[in-house]
Every structure is written in C-alpha cells, then in structure tokens.
# Entry
Amino acid sequence: MNEVNYITPSLDEGYSPEAIANMENALEEFIVSLLDIKPEDANIAVFRGLKLTIKGRPRRLSELGNVESPDDPMKIELMIYNKEQIEEVFEFIKNNGFPAKNEQGSQFIHIRVPKPSRMQLEELGDEVIRRTNSACTRLMKIKTNTGLRIRAAMEKEYIDQRISGFAVKKIDNALERITKEIKIVGVIKRKAILGSFFKTVERDDNDIVKIINKRIKLEKDKIAKEQELRLKDEASESQGQTTVRVENENIRNNDEQKVEELNISSNST
# Structure
C-alpha cells in the first residue's frame, strides 16, 4: 500500500495539495502553449521575418503589413499598410522566390509558400524542447517555494516533522509524475511536427518514446477488445432475433394447423 496515500486523509496540512494543484496547472498551461506550434506555420514565421530596406532602413514584412493565412497555411495574405510601398514589397517577395500575385489597386498581396523544410521543422522541434524544459523548471520552482514554506512552518511550530515529511514526500511524488507527463507530451508534439525526421536528442528521449509506444499499444488493444465485444453483442443480438423469429413462425404454423384441423372437423360434421 502507498504510505503517502494511506495517511493523507488524517494529515492536517495544506502545503502539498496546493503545490500539486499548481503543478497540475503548469502541465495544463504547457499543453495549451504547444497548440500554437504548428508545422504549417513555419513558413509564415520565416516570411514575417524577411527584411527589406525602405528609405535606407531595414524593415520586416510584418512591420509593413498584416500577415495572415486564413484559408490555407500554404497561402499567405499580406495586406500592405502603405499603398505607396505595395510595388516595392511585391517585387521583393518575388525576388526572394515566393510566387506572388497582386491585383491592380488592391492592398493585398497573395503569396504561395512551399512546405516547411526539415531545418524549419527542426527549429519548431527545438522550440518544443525549450518550452518543455521551461515547464519542468517551473515545477522545480513550485517544489522549492513550497519546501521553504514548509520549513518556515516547522520553525514556527505550525506543523511537526512527521507532517512535514509526508507533505514533502507527496510533493516529490507529484513532481516526478508530472515532470514525466510534461516530457511525454513534449515528445509526442515533436514527433507530430517532425514526422519521419524525428530523432531522439534529449537524454531521456529513448525512455519516453518507449512509454509512448506502450501507451499506443495499450490503446490499440483496448480498441480491439471493445470492437470484439461489440461484434459479439451484435452476433448475440442477431441470434436472439433469429430465435424469436423461428419461435413466432412455429407458433403461427401451429395456430394455422389447429385452425385447419377445426375446419376439417367442422366439415366432416
């Protein structure tokens, strides 16, 4: 039996529940932060960063116009703020290898971008690693800050050493569990971004990949089991319907036979 879980209900301390809740929130916020990292946006990021010189001053495209991709990540709409700069920006974009179109009198330049290169995808993967490490560091800060509060509470005799020990142990267990979950989520995101280009680069990537593969296998086994049970239920239901149909047919035949016998008997009389 887990000693920490066993004695938790009888402990009078609020340090570990608060720390664990903060760690859980850090995990959720980390997951949400990964949603805005998309492979299809890699070229848009590069496009926004392109610089051209206007009136002797280097300017990013994102400073000169609004860069969006409303319908297709491979198609960018650039709305130039200053109409006088449209032609210059348009030529700059074409000279940088991006197929572009601009209708006469329109402030919009429509650009088609290629699929992200391996290098661009790896840069996104590196960004996921940075956010993963940052989230893990945040967990450590939560543990450290809570540990300082627990120590201060002991010194002021708000809690005794026994309660302090169990609180610290619960926090350590949560730190290990949630840190592992953050790393798992990070590797899953990197695999989704890099696809066939994915490779293990962090120290514990290999162990995390094994955990992910095990989870995938368990999920597939679960789905297969559910499908098997569903098919058995459908077969059983079908068999039951067949049995009822046969029984009804037999009853109807018996009734028809009885009616026929009564008719024969009546005719004979």
Notes: Residues 203-269 form one domain. The first strand starts at residue 51 and ends at 54. The chain has three domains: 3-36+118-202, 39-72+75-112, 203-269. The helical segments are 3-7, 15-34, 42-49, 61-64, 86-95, 118-155, 161-194, 205-268.
